[in-house]
Amino acid sequence: MKNNSEALLAKLANDDLGVFFLVFFGFNQPHFFTTLPYDLSWNGNIYVTERNLIDFESPRATTVVDRQTYKLRLSALDPVMMAEVENGIIHMPVEIKLGFVIDGAAQTGLNDMYHVYSGTVANTKKQVNDGEQSLNIECSAPLSSLDAKSTLFTTRDALKAFDPTDTAFDQIFEGSTEFSLKWGQV
Fold first, then answer.
1. Are 114 and 58 in contact (CB under 8 A)?
2. Sign of the torsion formed by the C-alpha atoms of 159, 160, 163 and 167
3. Residue 19: C-alpha distances to residues 89, 106, 170 (Å)
4. What does the alpha-carbon distance between residue 111 and residue 3 come to, in Å, rounded to a whole number?
5. Helix (H, G, I), strand (E, B) or coil at 47
6. 97 φ/ψ angles, rounded to the nearest 5 degrees
7. Please, what is the Cα angle at 43 between 41 and 46, to 5 degrees?
8. Among 29, 30, 28, which residue's Cα sits nearest to residue 47?
9. What is the pLDDT of residue 165?
10. What are the C-alpha distances in Å from 36 to residues 8, 10, 13, 179?
11. Whole-structure pTM value
């Protein structure tokens, strides 16, 4: 069970309370964003105010774990992030934490932060409307591992997308030929 600080528990009863989110994208170059109106240093990382984070779905408090995906919308104007998207960010980690603002001060103690979401990028889609470019990122659902899986091609090139240094299929690929294998009752 999570133990909250006394200051947080005392202020939860008051109206002078706000919330903020910390969003981490574990791409090849990690990206850290916050919904606070200023940059925040937390746990050894600088979370940049939401210049790229346009919109994201607030966490749902339900009694059952559902299969709904978690969606975020980012500005597609950052060339560094868009270069990463072009190189492929599917299956890259995403984490979201929730914190409270009490009397105008962000409560950033380890006991004050709540883990809201942890998963991976499942799909991306670039959108252009009325001069605005945005990137919709759909993250995996908590129970998505129980849904039907997409096909994983076990070829040399397909595995390079996960790890460019992987050489496991290089030797198998050389000199191999197609063959049919009968299985089941013959």
1. no
2. positive
3. 28, 8, 50
4. 6
5. strand
6. -125, 150
7. 30
8. 30
9. 84
10. 18, 22, 22, 58
11. 0.65
Q: How many residues does the chain have?
A: 186
Identify whether the C-beta of residue 49 lies closer than 8 Å to the C-beta of residue 39. Answer: yes
Q: Quote the mean pLDDT of the chain.
A: 77
Task: Please give the pLDDT value at position 46.
Answer: 93
Consecutive H or E run containing 107: strand 105-107
Strand pairing partners for 159? none
For the chain, the first-to-last Cα distance in angstroms comes to 56
C-alpha to C-alpha distance for 149 and 144, rounded to whole angstroms: 9
Q: Does 77 have pLDDT greater than 80?
A: no
CB 70 within 8 A of CB 58: no
DSSP 177: -
Residue 50, both tokens? 């939401």
Within 10 angstroms of residue 71's Cβ, the number of other Cβ atoms is 14
Q: Which two three-digit tokens encode residue 111?
A: 């006991």
